[in-house]
Amino acid sequence: MGERAILAEVDDLARVLGLHAALAASPPAGVDDLVPAARTVLVAFDPARIAPAAVRAWILSVGQTPPDATAPGALVEIPTRYDGPDLEETAALLGIRPADLVARHAGAEWTVAFTGFAPGFAYLVSDAWPHDVPRLAQPRTRVPAGSIGLAGGFSGAYPRETPGGWRLIGTTDAPLFDPDAADPVLLAPGARVRFVPLRAAVSAATGGDSASGGADAAAASSDPGISSRLPALRIVAPGALATVQDLGRPGRAALGVARSGALDRGALRIANRLVGNAEDAAGVEIVLGGFRAVAERDTWVAVTGALGDLHLDGRAVDAYTPVFLPAGAELSIGVARGGARFVLAVRGGVTGPETLGSRSNDVLASLGPPALRAGDVLRAGEASHPIPVVDVFPWSVPDSSIDVDVAPGPRADWFTPAARRTLGEATWTVSRDADRVGIRLDGPALERVRHDELPSEGMRPGALQVPPHGRPVILLADGPVTGGYPVIAVVTDATLDRLAQVRPGDRVRFRGSR
């Protein structure tokens, strides 16, 4: 699946659980994430630390070895009120009484097969559950947090309010996802689950692996020195959207948490270097400009990314250079004339509470600090290095027509040879549906040779999903960690940042897709 992940496919969900457990028991250095799904395990790795051929050989070796008996996961009991709006209709569809549906659901011991859709949303399966429950014909636009539902052979509970098409049979007050907890996900892959009717307390019994997400679920932390950090900038106007971003939350996809972070990582790294910060310090990502802020104290800033007019108290200043901002001065960033996203770095880096090890705002999962508003004050920490002496920093204006390199996708064979040629030969237009989650492209339809439904499988930033209408959608940093549309190709990591600067009407060409 591109250059930084391999999708291991097996015959059924039971084999997924066995393969995932075996891979998780002994991952080699360089393997960063394992994402089980309905029929696959996505293995993400760093090619600078381990060769793709070594990853493939490791997966095949583990997959061909008879699995050892695995200890059962921790048992998590979920107090449940069987009061869902679809309870009676679902029972009727199955030809049983509502009381029998409740008894069967509560009597089964479930296992977390995989997570996805939203952070902490667990897909639960049980050998004691024989039913295949059809999804709603019209999904709800709002499913309340804590709703317990059924879809296909799965049960699951919604950690937060989202849209959804599952049939709702109950509710729970259990803390399914708490980003500020040491173990943020209550129902992690491998955990055993029982739904306990009425008011039983949630408990976690020991017995094998923790249901906490293991070493991948590093403790969330808050900056202990935030109260002592000095205010740096006060927001006067945030523009269309301004969010705090660092380099994100890699390695947490198994918990349903996307990487997030700055879309133009190169622009963030350069801006930080220009003001003496570590490259991974948090800055501000500003969509299409229109941003204004006043310095609360003397500080240094740098603006990179898109092209626009920059002014300091009405005096023009340059992008891609350190700019001294005296206390009380106003920095303004005009409307972008090229590109889509500016990056603003403040000397010392933007500080504030971390969520799962990052200060990034994830717009899809609502993780991290909220989008900036007028009146907000940004605080900064201590810089790592002196301000560099920069006479000129070479940079190019983002173009309205870009080329991006792609590597093969795992489902390229679902498409006709003509469709695969078209992907690389066509010039695609960025639609109005373009944000931090993904970019929908307009152009010729890519014809499939297979039209059956693809079970959900792990996704990556840069994946080119192709929905039934045939036009590709490129997933970006806040995109879902699992999905059910076939991936024809994956944008290479080296060219992924270019997509941060495209805007509706821009043109995209793919190279290396055949």
In short:
The chain has 514 residues and is an alpha+beta fold.
Structure overview:
The longest helix is centred in the N-terminal third of the chain and has 13 residues, at 13-25. The chain is an alpha+beta fold and 514 residues long. The chain is globular. The protein has helices at 13-25, 52-64, 87-94, 98-107, 265-274, 417-425, 493-496, and strands spanning 5-9, 31-36, 40-45, 75-80, 110-115, 122-125, 140-143, 147-151, 154-157, 162-164, 167-171, 192-197, 203-205, 230-237, 241-245, 283-287, 291-295, 299-307, 310-312, 315-317, 323-325, 330-333, 338-346, 377-380, 401-408, 428-434, 438-442, 457-458, 463-465, 473-475, 482-483, 487-491, 507-511. The protein starts with a strand and ends with a strand. It has a 7-stranded mixed barrel. The chain has a 6-stranded antiparallel beta sheet with strand order 20-19-22-17-14-24, with no helix packed on it. Strands 6-5-12-4-13 form a 5-stranded mixed beta sheet. The chain is built from 7 helices and 33 strands.
Global geometry = globular
The overall average pLDDT, rounded, is 89
Give the termini distance in whole angstroms.
15 Å
Low-confidence stretches: 200-228
Q: What helical percentage do the residues reach?
A: 10-25%
**Proportion in β-strands:** 25-35%
**Computed Rg:** 24 Å
Counting DSSP H or I runs of 4 or more residues, the number of helices is 7
Which features would summarize this protein structure in a list?
33 strands; 7 helices; six-stranded antiparallel β-sheet; alpha+beta
